[in-house]
Design brief:
mainly alpha, single chain, 3 helices
Amino acid sequence: MRTKKSSELISASGLIKLMTHAMMGAALGLTFSLTLVLSNPAVANLLNNGGSQAAAVFALTLVTTFAIGATLTGVVFMLAEDKQS
């Protein structure tokens, strides 16, 4: 009879892995927003005409979206790893 082991998501190392995925997503979102602003003049024009907070809101929206997506992907990967072992 196999012993039931606890999920890796609940442990301290699991939380560190999830935070790492979130930070990677945030960095990717920030890089994507900077690339989009620099490569697309229409986006840069919209941000210039949007007021003082437009660039910050644009960047924070992309950073948050990418961070949440990377964290959820990390959860799926960790659960799949847990299931295999």
